[in-house]
Fold these 2 entries.
Entry 1:
Amino acid sequence: MAKQAGRLFVLKKNNVTIGGGLEHGLTVNGEPIDVQSKEDLGFVTYLADTLVGRSCVVTISGLDSDKVLRGLALDTDPASVFLTDITLEYGDGDVLSGDFVMTGFGNTGSNDAGLQFSATFTSDGQWTYTPGV
């Protein structure tokens, strides 16, 4: 597999790159179903081919150069953080897309640096993964 430049791993909302992003992350979660019984002699045994609680968690942090995420987070209408237009794009053309909920947002400011932001998005339902060509 070819190496990729991290700067080409970008998060977009409505096909527009979220401004100021310096670091992006993806974690895919899922839990197997534990079906161990006394016959398993104390060893964990999982139900084959089944995961529950599957989710994708996307993170972004960087310099707060636009107010898009801040505006969504501070909006008093909870519906504003349920997003149907999020994509995470890889430099090799792979794309993760789907409905996401912004489950966290924060700003940090220090005397000698630009205003920083961080945000977390958790998938809402099944996502779509499209491999690049």
Note: The chain has a mean pLDDT of 93.
Entry 2:
Amino acid sequence: MSLHDRIERALEHLCIPKDRLRLVALLPLVEVAWSDGSIADEERRMILAVADKHGLLTDEDRPIVEDWLSEKPSGLFLHHTRLLIGELGNRLPEDLDATEVVAWCWALAAAAGGLFGSRMMSVSADEKAALERVAEALGVTEIKPEWRTRTI
């Protein structure tokens, strides 16, 4: 199977229409949010805030992302997510860049990982592993400490 076919199959599995590739920018956030086995309300809110702020969602796209945030992803979902992040991550829309997406992921993990909801910059081992996978897939080699306190 060609790379093009694998990408099309992954898009289909994730319910991303070919004309809405901007949604791929949210997949790293979804992976990090679910990396500890559940998704917190704060993580859900932050992902939707990023999507809204950066014009990544239309009203038509919202149910797709809501589905991603409401049910724990399967191994196959994560497989397709990683394929798309790796293959399309370096071809994000020109107004987004991989460093910004990784910074969003760190801010998300830090905000959700704090003790009793505080932003104590605590990131679980599972979240850290997901963050490293996302950064590697997007070709981001430098992680900046200030990303943990960044607002989305």
Note: Residues 3-149 form one domain.
